[in-house]
Design a protein that fits this description.
heterodimer, A: alpha/beta, Pyruvate-ferredoxin Oxidoreductase, domain 3, 4 domains, eight-stranded mixed sheet, 37% helix, B: alpha/beta, Rossmann fold, 12 strands, globular
């Protein structure tokens, strides 16, 4: 059989939420990344912990995009779909490209399974209009049972290995070396060698099945690596990268890392990750509520830690009062908001960008607060590091926005070398101010000095009441309040952030695509697609949202037409229009809880390019 | 990771023996109404801190919002006057970050038990080493006279002109229900009694609740009249001390005995009752049944219990956090960020040859 060279391929593993699809997908990503392919992954969980087996609501998916060159998204639709049962085929088929290969476990397409998946006949392929020639119909469960018949494992444990058979088959399809997968398994099941060997046996069996039957699909694929950036890499999810960025920042600043948090999807993995690292001195407190998560972090900050609180949108609603306390006390604090679908409980496992205006404005009084947004799973590392640096050096709470897509998705992170990262220097009160220091004295950047409890001679009281700018005592003086309001605003406005970078047809684009945070990859891929079609298109993507980069107005007003594309009803567009006089963008807004698809973006942006103003 | 600075190298201690006076902890001019119970408590706190002797810079006083929460502004220590109800949560972050600090959390009955009730119970459950002061005047003073969660049923206030139709919390019951290991009570005007329980709270490792009965001269005048003056305390209160007989009265003529499931007031020398029959206080008893009964006593049939009612050792949260860090650090092979990275599955992409 012929092996086709492809530039990039998208594979989607799907099955019951208990079928181990996330693990199979993770191993396949790692195997691909190890040979140097670029990867981008997206797990698509159901909201239920464990919906009834075989039901349509219980299907869990894991999509991975592997590319010979850099890939920016997990892909709109897949080239290969693994469907472990009838419900998975029913719900996931819409994510396949025309002509995609489909792998199914025929043992899970029995009468009862078909009924649960709402098929009306036993010709399920015909019912869905799927060409049988595209389908590898494998009695997967039977083969796994046969393979492990002599293993001595109980039937339930045997069935848990089905995902590994599917993985083996996909590895065959993509001509992958199995050794990396085997190492992964041995590492994961280090304490249970017999389980590891059983899984390895099943992976090999899946691979051999593909090889021996020369399955009916059109061919095998190979994705070679074209542009390697040399270095050492690891696969990392956005949430883990965020946790690592915070750890790195605390170490660089020479501070203890404190996390006050309350479990909430999709942010909880940050609490999980940081809770592991006691040997780095990280302290995590799982608090009684979101309020306490933030309030305790404010206390930790006062006591001299790099203090962090992590949550999602509903948690921000509850934390906002304590965030505001950090604003008026001018204490450093990193507030992580892993955005999800709203309002209220909304769509807890799905992704949106709908908290932007909440974090910019959702507090009483004049409450300026820096806001950043990570642009990809791996960018979460840098974003968390820089958010910490900004908070510590400017004595302010900083909001870091990520979202469910970025947080759960993964990419290959080139191992960061801490020595290469900028210094973090909190403005501790200089010794020479002993005797004359008051709590709201400021340095040249307008930043209040930090005096940490335990230091003799710098005892002071902070609080939520307005203070006199000179003495630090409670003050209701009108002039002083106005002055303090202005000083707090200026402190944030003065923060230096990197300039906005324009990519694509920088000099002569007819359309500038603007977005923020986790949509970077999709918008970039859409830009490249439009350029490939012959259009002149550029992209500018915001990672620093408050304060905005100094060149924002210059960039936004430079192009004939600008579209702000975001997963909300126009929050970034509203912010930019407020900040840039005369800026009137087109908008592309989508609030579906799912990542953008590149094809939708291209379809919707093409008319903008065709319109008279765009072409003049 | 570096530890946070806990004592300045320029500190004024000589062999740890530097003496402090109450004025070393004192700052500013309190703005409470003349006669407010907060004045009395503040003076006692200054004296207690001087007796305890922890340097001003190693104390942190954290309050919420309310009349009594102004207190940190009159302290020459580190401190924060924060937001309504969150003092216990904020103090938790301070103590976990730097267990070497002595942390005083100061709240009123509204701040601590209404808006801050959740943090109050969880600080007790967690048993974090905070000295939790609850200044109880059974009223909202700063918002000018609404009933609080400790106001009695039927209490008439601006927000309950026909009397409240709800029962109050009794702080001790809440503390014990949250598995609290320390509860003490004093009257604001009773300086020795207040200083005694503040010292005991400091000595106790873990969450230590001190209920201070105090008067609001403007909106709830006389709420603690039965125990507010020394003569009234002699009649209507009992001072409990671990290991001592539970006697009270102007001439210590009364005592407490157990009867059935409850307590009973008896007169010593009457009906054959002798001093030997009187209960001896056991603040260290793990079982809180009798301690709760003591804490719940109220007039006119019973004296109000003052002093340290419960004081039982238990593992503290902040120490356990430190111990776990030590324990896990000894087991794990990575102790900095670069070493952490190496614990992952890593692959190398080599330069094209």
């Amino acid at each position: 059989m012929e092996i086709k060279e492809l530039n990039d391929v998208v594979v989607r593993f799907s099955g019951d939420s208990g079928d181990g699809m996330q693990l199979a997908g993770n191993i396949f990503s790692t195997v691909s990344a190890t040979v140097g392919n670029s990867i981008s992954t997206f797990p698509d969980y159901p909201a239920d912990i464990r919906a009834p087996q075989g039901s349509l609501t219980g299907v869990s998916g894991f999509q991975v995009h592997i590319g010979a060159e850099q890939v920016f998204t997990p892909g709109d639709k897949c080239d290969v779909l693994v469907a472990m049962n009838a419900a998975a085929l029913k719900t996931q088929y819409r994510f396949t490209k025309p002509g995609a290969a489909i792998i199914i476990d025929t043992d899970s397409f029995q009468a009862a399974d078909l009924k649960k998946a709402a098929f009306e006949t036993d010709d399920y392929l015909g019912e869905m209009g799927i060409d049988p020639d595209r389908v590898i119909q494998c009695p997967l469960t039977t083969m796994v049972k046969d393979c492990l018949a002599d293993s001595g494992m109980d039937p339930k444990s045997v069935l848990k290995c089905r995902n590994m058979f599917a993985l083996g088959l996909v590895c065959w399809l993509f001509d992958r070396d199995l050794d990396v997968a085997f190492n992964f398994i041995r590492e994961k099941f280090g304490k249970k060698p017999s389980v590891a060997e059983a899984n390895i046996k099943v992976i090999q069996a899946g691979y051999d099945y593909g090889h021996n039957t020369h399955s009916s699909v059109a061919g095998r694929y190979r994705v070679e690596t074209k542009h390697k950036v040399p270095g050492r890499y690891m696969d990392i999810t956005g949430n883990k990268a965020t946790a690592y960025g915070l750890i790195a920042a605390a170490e660089k600043a020479g501070l203890q890392l404190y996390l006050g948090s309350y479990p909430i999807t999709p942010a909880t993995d940050v609490l999980h990750e940081l809770s592991k690292h006691k040997s780095l001195g990280v302290k995590t407190v799982q608090c009684e509520d979101e309020i306490s998560g933030c309030a305790s972090a404010v206390g930790a900050s006062f006591a001299g830690a790099l203090a962090v609180t992590s949550t999602s949108g509903p948690g921000i609603c509850l934390k906002s009062e304590a965030m505001n306390l950090a604003v008026i006390m001018e204490l450093p604090l990193v507030v992580l908001d892993v955005q999800r679908g709203g309002p209220a409980t909304g769509l807890p496992t799905k992704s949106e960008q709908t908290d932007l205006l909440q974090v910019l404005f959702g507090r009483n009084g004049e409450s300026p607060m820096p806001v950043m947004a990570a642009t990809s799973p791996t960018d979460c590392f840098d974003a968390a590091y820089m958010a910490s640096k900004m908070a510590l050096e400017h004595m302010t709470p900083v909001v870091l926005l990520t979202d469910a897509f970025v947080a759960n998705g993964s990419g290959a992170l080139r191992l960061p070398i801490l020595e290469d990262y900028p210094e973090i220097k909190p403005p501790y009160v200089p010794e020479e101010l002993r005797g004359q220091w008051t709590p709201y004295m400021r340095n040249a950047d307008g930043v209040r000095y930090w005096a940490v409890p335990g230091r003799e001679g710098f005892e002071h009281i902070l609080g939520g009441l307005e203070k006199d700018s000179k003495t630090g005592a409670i003050s209701t003086d009108p002039e002083n309040h106005h002055l303090m309001t202005v000083l707090r605003q200026q402190k944030i406005d003065n923060i230096q952030v990197p300039d906005l970078v324009v990519e694509g047809d920088v000099d002569d684009a007819d359309l500038l695509i603007v977005g923020f945070g986790g949509t970077y990859g999709h918008l970039h891929a859409a830009m490249e697609e439009l350029r490939a079609q012959g259009h002149k298109v550029a992209q500018a993507h915001f990672k620093y949202i408050n304060p905005l980069p100094k060149n924002t107005a210059d960039v936004l007003l430079r192009y004939k037409k600008v579209v702000v594309a975001e997963q909300n009803m126009g929050q970034l567009a509203a912010w930019l229009r407020m900040k840039v006089d005369g800026f009137v963008p087109a908008q592309y807004n989508e609030v579906k809880g799912q990542p953008f698809t590149v094809s939708d973006l291209v379809d919707n942006m093409t008319p903008l390019l065709a319109s008279p103003e765009g072409k003049e | 990771m570096n530890e946070t600075v806990t004592t300045s190298p320029l500190g004024g201690t000589v062999g740890g023996l530097r003496q402090f006076s109450p004025s070393d902890y004192k700052k500013g001019q309190p703005r409470w109404c003349p006669g407010c119970g907060d004045h009395f408590f503040l003076a006692s706190l200054h004296k207690a801190l001087a007796e305890i002797g922890v340097e001003p810079w190693n104390n942190a006083v954290i309050s919420g919002i309310g009349c009594s929460s102004r207190l940190p502004h009159y302290m020459a220590t580190y401190g924060m006057n924060t937001i309504h109800g969150r003092a216990a949560a904020i103090a938790t972050g301070v103590k976990v970050t730097n267990p070497k600090l002595t942390v005083w959390q100061v709240s009123g009955d509204g701040d601590g038990l209404a808006i801050g009730g959740n943090h109050f119970i969880h600080a007790n459950r967690r048993n974090i080493n905070l000295n939790m002061i609850l200044l109880n005047n059974r009223i909202y003073g700063l918002t000018k006279g609404q009933y609080s969660p400790t106001s009695p049923r039927g209490f008439v206030s601006k927000s309950s002109p026909y009397g409240t139709v709800e029962d109050p919390f009794r702080p001790a019951e809440l503390c014990f229900g949250a598995r609290g290991h320390f509860f003490a009570r004093a009257v604001a005007t009773d300086a020795p009694g207040t200083i005694e329980i503040l010292r005991a709270a400091y000595e106790h490792k873990g969450a230590a609740v001190c209920e201070i009965l105090q008067n609001c001269v403007i909106f709830n005048n006389g709420t603690h009249d039965d125990v507010y003056s020394a003569p009234n305390r002699k009649k209507n209160a009992i001072y409990l001390r671990h290991g001592e007989k539970m006697v009270f009265g102007e001439n210590d003529e009364y005592g407490l005995v157990q009867e059935g499931f409850g307590l009973k007031v008896v007169k010593i020398g009457e009906n054959g009752v002798t001093l030997d029959d009187i209960l001896v206080h056991d603040a260290h008893c793990e079982d809180n049944t009798l301690q709760l009964k003591l804490a719940m006593m109220e007039g006119p049939d019973f004296p109000v219990a003052l002093g340290v009612i419960r004081d039982v050792p238990a593992p503290t949260y902040d120490e356990a956090v430190e111990a776990q860090i030590q324990e896990v650090s000894a087991q794990k092979k990575y102790h900095n960020f670069a070493e952490l990275l190496e614990t992952n599955d890593i692959w190398e992409v080599r330069a094209e040859s």
